[in-house]
Specification:
The chain is mainly alpha-helical and 198 residues long. The protein is 67% helix and 4% strand. It has a two-stranded antiparallel sheet with strand order 1-2. α1 (3-29) packs parallel to α3 (77-102) and α3 runs antiparallel to α4. It starts with a helix and ends in a 10-residue tail after the last helix.
Length: 198
């Protein structure tokens, strides 16, 4: 596509990106400085945040420059809007609902506060890791909306890698802290997708 044809997609990616930042800043401002009871894999968590910061930079390079234009994918405009826009809209709704459900229990690191509760409301009624699910949705959305394998593809790979690296230690930590309560919760929910029962 010519640069003029690409402009609406750049604007849309930029809007979703900055909307994500606003949502995260808003909910993070509501989290008080809590006393940490349990913390695990702190260095690895911080490393993933740094890597994610680089993927955000790639998205911004796509939005504001033509430096990544040689990495374009041959998606039609309709596919980009429907698939990319649809996934990013779903991501934004899930991301917001997850933050709202977590409230003061949210943390970017693998840690549990002294007054931490097991959240089972909102998206947590159906899946145990809606924040990871949201980021994977956003990766698919950015890949299709940008139609750029560097900006969108690397973001998606990092989102999936972060989930794969963190989910087992996180569940182990929750099991150790909440015990039988978490065991029962696991029986009725899926990790990323709702558990459909007969």
């Amino acid at each position: 596509m010519t640069s003029n044809d690409e402009l609406p997609f750049r604007i849309a990616v930029g809007i979703f990106f900055f909307l994500t930042m606003l949502i995260r800043i808003y909910y993070q401002s509501k989290v008080q400085h809590e006393t940490i009871a349990v913390s695990t894999h702190e260095q690895r968590s911080k490393l993933f945040f740094q890597i994610f910061a680089l993927t955000y930079l790639l998205l911004l390079l796509y939005v504001f420059t033509s430096w990544l234009d040689n990495a374009s994918l041959p998606f039609s405009a309709a596919v980009r809007w429907i698939v990319g826009g649809g996934f990013l809209l779903a991501y934004t709704l899930l991301f917001t609902a997850t933050h709202a459900a977590l409230g003061r229990n949210w943390s970017g690191l693998l840690e549990i506060h002294t007054d931490h509760i097991l959240v089972v409301r909102g998206p947590y009624q159906f899946i145990r890791h809606p924040m990871y699910a949201a980021f994977i949705l956003s990766g698919i959305g950015y890949l299709f909306l940008s139609a750029n394998w560097i900006a969108g593809g690397i973001y998606l790979i990092i989102a999936i890698t972060m989930y794969a690296d963190r989910v087992s230690p996180e569940e182990k930590m929750m099991m150790e802290h909440f015990g039988e309560q978490y065991t029962q919760y696991r029986k009725t929910t899926g990790r990323l997708f709702p558990r459909f029962r007969k």
